[in-house]
């Protein structure tokens, strides 16, 4: 019996090319087992083999989405594999988006069974979990062993055309697909059993988990806006011309803090947007359309607000991991409190 042929996709870091400085690395294919592929090889044993590894930089893939996807598809097609694996990406946002994009494309356009793996809060998870099987991993590469083991087991099932069990049984992120199953007990009896366990403080598994919404208590109203110091924070990606901090156009790994002391107006000569999720023409033409520095300066001069804070904070929100956004918010809020800021205007795109 011949082995299952696998093509594996990884980014520039796991491919041994380099870190962020090599994130613009264009796709290449190597007939080698590289990085996480070595762990897959061990788990596959004699059932499957990686015949090629495709390596692509995260920035290149996300900033040249259609071109990168087409190139990788051609590389995969050349080997006519039985199975395609991308990642695992853990909580790396751009890597997760790339893995979800290419795994979906290989499955839909080439008809090859595909899967990937990532942390549930990776933006790629929300974007592609309904399209492709996606094994749930820990949020960092420290969970590589467990991730590869689960991915290998599910991958072999996919390649063999075997029936795939529930998310809990197989370890993949729920895809929102409803499937009829038969239970020994009727629904009312199961519900009572769960209620009794809950009342006793015992563990139980609900059959219909409810979404967990993050609730934030609203802040107190500003007592006197004419004396308040106002700051601007944006996920619209406004940065000084040239994007000195190299904030990514998608799945941002950082935010910037920029001085606007003495500036009454943002212009196309001084500022631009780094955001890759919308048409940037109007934002680049007049950055005040995203962060209203000009209007706030007028209000400051007219005594309608106390003052405009000397710095504004900026990142790009599209595709950025929720965990990353929460950390940025905590860091920025700490500085704003220390600087005596009374209120913040949050803008997007």
What is the strand and helix layout of this fold?
Elements: E1 4-11, E2 28-30, H1 37-44, E3 48-56, H2 58-63, H3 65-79, E4 83-86, H4 93-110, E5 114-118, H5 123-128, E6 133-136, H6 144-160, H7 167-170, H8 187-200, E7 229-234, E8 238-240, E9 256-259, E10 271-273, H9 281-285, H10 293-301, E11 307-314, H11 322-338, E12 343-347
Parallel strand pairs: 1-3, 1-4, 4-5, 5-6, 7-11, 7-12
Antiparallel strand pairs: 2-3, 8-10, 9-11
Helix pairs in contact: 1-6, 3-4
Structural class: alpha/beta
Determine the mean pLDDT: 92
Widest sheet: strand ordering: 2-3-1-4-5-6
Distance between the termini: 55 Å
Q: What level of helicity do the residues show? A: 25-40%
Helix and strand string, N-terminal first?
EEHEHHEHEHEHHHEEEEHHEHE
Can you count the helices? 11
Shape: flat
Uncertain stretches of 5 or more adjacent residues: none
Biggest sheet: strands, sense, closure? Answer: 6 strands, mixed
Indicate the radius of gyration in whole angstroms: 24 Å
Number of strands: 12
Strand content: 15-25%
